[in-house]
């Protein structure tokens, strides 16, 4: 342990040494250290704060480790094999819930190939692991939605929804953590969108959503069940229940309510956040100074204590609970300039796990407020030293129609005065998403090979207000695309990059942007890499329609809004589809796609590859076995990265002698 005062001094100074242009270029780590998934994931304090659970990763093997902090004694270390771990949480002091996923189908129930989620509970005393919903009559041992843990008068309890094998129900079950068996406690059919549990595990709010009509309703306790108190037509932007409010009889609802809160286009990405009294039905705005992008609830009571949002320099928190606010302010003072992220509290809020990745590859630290200490727990990428991390600059430039476009520019390690660098435009997915400050393994891997990396938050990205999101509607392949090339032109005008040495790379929507860069905006890029990209927009939307119960569903409406389609199977989308424009491709293109992708099917890359071959154009296509949409596996993530770098170095070489 280090004294907290010493930690403050060290943290205030760490990561701020200037990387001068004449500094020696640090040796680049091997691509394996970037391609591997982080060495540690999902760090969680136990309720008492005496134990810590986390997932450790070595190659494709993930292990659950539970350690007593005071003695550093490992109470449990066990392999979870090669399956994907999605969540980790404590059920009281003696049990740990691990949520994993696999890409599978259920042919007997007509369930197509999707990502299915499973829960396992480890009992630290018996060292037994049981599967959630195991041996529950007529219920699949699959989690339908997230799990909830409540500290009830009967003890710490797990609640999950389970899918019936005989009807259209996905009831809420109270699960016995000793054997995994569930007992149905509330009827829920497929239209039940979400629910909120109070501290005892009683349902205090329900929401229903009809995908075909786009009608959403809020239901609160009344009589023997729940009464409908508010409905709204929400074809795309569906309201959401966000847990308990600041008191046991309030809930949080994210919704568009101009009748309560005036519509301020610059105040929020979409909906306002309200606190609703479940007994009176009264709605009120929460007293946040800035619209939160996420909420923070107390680890034991599950009451709302604060929220946070991604800002230009990183995550910023705002706490409504005075004690939590005071303690987090001390964390921010200690980690000044590092944009600390809250990972987990103990129940007393006397200890907190903090993650930082500003000027470093990611580090977990444990802050103990009573002992006034901060102790390093683990590094996310231990093989990457701070001096090997490229500087990340927040930038703004003006698009051709005058819209301000924010983003980030990652420089090669050791560079502080960039000039004439080769550039990779790394486009994010979504498109209603965004890039954030901090360590980005993909951007840093490319920067380590001598490239400047532009991550532009083009119009339609979240985090910059409702008007900025709406500016992207109908601009798929249009202004969302030229926002990227406008960034290239700005960097070239500043002398930072060489406009003759620019390639475009991206995944999901970013994969589409890479293909569109070579078809719709081809004078800017000399090569492109599309990972899990959409090549045929009409085919993609039709596929989404076939996957759901109703062809007219929320996902289809979402795609059509950004793509600018007037209806399902709108042939106008062909003009924006790279697969229909393959004959115009004059620059090298690399396609990479996971065979287990359930978000953008691998068919989208296969269609593009075939279109290029028919047009007599060269194409490289890499299929990743066993990989999903999120590059969850270390081996295939590294394969993607290695193929991308090899392709870039062949078609847009970067010298390490900057």
List the SSEs and their pairings.
Blueprint (H helix, E strand, L loop, with lengths): L1 E2 H10 L18 H4 L4 E6 L5 E8 L2 E8 L4 E9 L2 E8 L3 E12 L4 E13 L5 E3 L7 E5 L4 E5 L2 E10 L7 E4 L6 E5 L5 E6 L5 E8 L4 E8 L2 E9 L6 E5 L5 E6 L16 E6 L5 E3 L8 E4 L6 E8 L2 E6 L2 H13 L6 E5 L5 E6 L6 E6 L4 E7 L12 E7 L5 E7 L10 E7 L13 H8 L3 E5 L9 H5 L8 H15 L3 E11 L1 H11 L7 E5 L5 H11 L6 H10 L25 E6 L8 H12 L5 E5 L9 H18 L7
Helix pairs in contact: 8-9
Describe the structure in your own words:
The structure is a single chain. The chain has 658 residues and is an alpha+beta fold. 18% of the residues lie in helices and 37% in strands. It contains eleven helices and 37 strands. The chain has an eight-stranded mixed beta sheet with strand order 30-31-33-32-34-35-36-37, sandwiched between helices. It has a five-stranded antiparallel beta sheet with strand order 1-29-28-27-26. Mean pLDDT is 90; it is low at 1-22.
List keywords for this structure.
5-stranded antiparallel sheet, alpha+beta, 8-stranded mixed sheet
Determine the strand fraction and express it as a percent band: 35-45%
Number of DSSP E strands: 37
- Write down the Rg: 25 Å
Counting helices, strands and paired strands, the structural category is alpha+beta
- The oligomerization state is single chain
Helical element count? 11
Q: Unreliable runs, pLDDT <50, ≥5 residues?
A: 1-22
* Through-space gap between termini: 41 Å
Major sheet description: 8 strands, mixed
Helical amount: 10-25%
- Describe the global form: globular
**Residue-averaged pLDDT, rounded?**
90
Neighbour order of strands in the largest sheet = 30-31-33-32-34-35-36-37
